[in-house]
């Protein structure tokens, strides 16, 4: 079977440069389906990450709580000696330090420290301090927190995965408006066949390969192959991959002349002999 070099690109796997370029001339439905598949992959990786790291740490921490700890009327009530580490590991750690003395240190990527009147969240990304609401009453004991958390954890995992997938779609559709202009200008300067609608579809598809890198980074961080800093850098790298595809794929589109020639012209006779004015060789026509 011979394959002509001027055949249109097949749009089925938006991973290579030619594969992404092919989505510029497909239906919007196919682009959205591809985006939904990639968003589902990243959402599943993110849900697995938080369920097996942060949420697992929360479950273990609840199992070590005393019988009657609580936060009542904006004040921490803790019956055991402080400061004290509750539980945690490389990803997340909880501790009690009413005066925020700093004696416990920070050995995890994210540390949550409960003080007398406020909570500290410390990580590589920064530091956040928030006071307890005055009317806030929270049980810090195993008997009450364990069933409460157990009933909500599955929905929180699904919600976090769904939120990640929805966030990706919003980012793709929003940045696609900006990237589409860039792709359209590059196609115009290089005499390639690309309209504004096709440029948006191309821009939306060009962001998909980088998201697979993001999914791989989530899993690598989960298994300890990447640090939190590397995970943050991988997010920026996924955007850089999208820029690479946006800048390169317009040059792989068919030239304007070939795109025009591929469309049937109703004013040109389909018979080459008739176009040249030659008589047809009909044996039933008298000479």
Distance between the termini: 43 Å
In the sheet with the most strands, the strands line up as 3-4-5-6-7
| Helix share, percent | 40-55%
Taking all Cα atoms into account, the compactness measure Rg is 30 Å
In total, how many domains does the architecture comprise?
A: 2
Explain what the structure shows.
It contains nine helices and eight strands. A hairpin with a 3-residue loop joins β5 and β6. α2 runs parallel beside α3 and α6 runs antiparallel to α7. The chain is elongated and about 80 Å long. The two termini are 43 Å apart. The N terminus is likely disordered.
Q: What's the short version?
A:
With 287 residues, the protein is α+β, with helices and mostly antiparallel strands. The chain contains 9 helices and 8 strands. Helices cover 51% and strands 13% of the residues.
Helices and strands, with pairings:
Blueprint (H helix, E strand, L loop, with lengths): L16 H6 L5 H25 L1 H10 L6 E3 L2 E3 L6 E5 L3 E5 L13 E5 L3 E6 L2 E6 L5 E3 L2 H48 L6 H11 L1 H15 L5 H21 L7 H7 L9 H4 L12
Parallel strand pairs: 4-5
Antiparallel strand pairs: 1-2, 1-8, 3-4, 5-6, 6-7
Give the key terms.
alpha+beta, 2 domains, 9 helices, disordered N terminus
């Amino acid at each position: 079977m011979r394959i002509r070099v001027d055949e249109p690109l097949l749009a089925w796997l938006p991973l290579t440069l030619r594969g992404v370029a092919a989505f510029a001339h497909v239906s919007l439905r196919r682009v959205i389906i591809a985006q939904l598949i990639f968003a589902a992959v990243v959402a599943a990786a993110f849900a697995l990450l938080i369920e097996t790291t942060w949420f697992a740490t929360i479950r273990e921490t609840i199992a070590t709580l005393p019988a009657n700890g609580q936060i009542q009327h904006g004040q921490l009530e803790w019956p055991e000696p402080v400061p004290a580490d509750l539980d945690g590991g490389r990803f997340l750690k909880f501790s009690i330090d009413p005066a925020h003395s700093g004696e416990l240190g920070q050995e995890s990527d994210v540390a949550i420290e409960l003080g007398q009147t406020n909570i500290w969240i410390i990580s590589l990304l920064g530091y956040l301090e928030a006071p307890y609401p005055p009317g806030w009453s929270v049980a810090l004991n195993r008997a009450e927190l364990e069933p409460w958390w157990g009933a909500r954890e599955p929905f929180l995992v699904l919600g976090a995965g769904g939120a990640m997938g929805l966030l990706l779609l919003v980012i793709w559709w929003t940045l696609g408006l900006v990237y589409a202009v860039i792709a359209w200008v590059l196609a115009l300067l290089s005499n390639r066949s690309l309209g504004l609608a096709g440029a948006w579809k191309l821009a939306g598809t060009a962001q998909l390969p980088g998201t697979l890198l993001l999914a791989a980074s989530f899993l690598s961080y989960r298994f300890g192959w990447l640090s939190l800093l590397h995970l943050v850098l991988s997010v920026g790298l996924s955007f850089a991959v999208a820029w690479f595809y946006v800048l390169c794929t317009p040059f792989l589109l068919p030239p304007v002349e070939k795109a025009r020639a591929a469309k049937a012209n109703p004013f040109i006779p389909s018979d080459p002999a008739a176009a040249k004015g030659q008589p047809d060789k009909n044996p039933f026509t008298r000479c």
